[in-house]
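Hey, quick one: can you model this chain's 3D structure?
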Amino acid sequence: MLNRKSASIAVLALGMAASAPLLAAPAAADPPSVVIVHGAFADGSDWAKVIPLLQAKGVKVQAVQNGLNSLADDVAATRRAIGNQTGKVVLVGHSWGGTVITEAGADSKVAGLVYVAAFAPDAGQSTEEVGKGYAPAPGIGKLVADANGYLSLPAAALASDFAQDVPAAQARVMAATQGPIKATAFGERTTVAAWQSKPSWFIVSEHDRMIQPDLERAMAKKIGAQVTSLPTSHVPQQSRPQDVAKVILDAVQAVEARRQAP
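Sure thing. Here's the predicted structure for all 262 residues.
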């Protein structure tokens, strides 16, 4: 018969043996999450219709709240959101947010980029330089600068040129909650272009009045993105959220498939 000391040692050894496989087994990687970056003249609530559709599919989503003071600040906010994720990230950007994800998407956690009616500059290129050679979109001429150099859209211009395919009441709320952007941010250049090394998806808004649709198509072709064209205004996430969610989910599924590939 084992004495008490021997019995204690035996129990300890059995416990260690039982737990050893658990300690040795690597933790399963978390599925991809989605980080969404809003554009100028908006805030994180701009994605309120898309987020529930992603969550309903079990996708973790975090919307970044950009200060819209500078490219550097918005990239820093996006990097913090990326850092909060435990697995790979599909990084989504709308409009100005496309410039932000082009820079922030170089993070090693980012496995895919989704541009939604967005700018996709090259490395060393600013947002305002992307559109050279194209006539300014109609809504750009209606921007108003305040005394501090922040640009915004008057309510009437937002309704006619930014979100012309949403109900009038909703457009009024969007005008009231818009985030003005520091005009100088558009002149800040990226240092990298994440799309050069990451797979990308691009939603072209065919009736966009803030970025010329031809420019969107040209950017999508340049970055080698998988393209979806929608008959929408500048904010398809507001007028066609199901279609936008589908593109994001396609990106998530592609990233997950690569993660699980042997």
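One thing worth noting: The CA atoms of residues 24 and 46 lie 44 Å apart.
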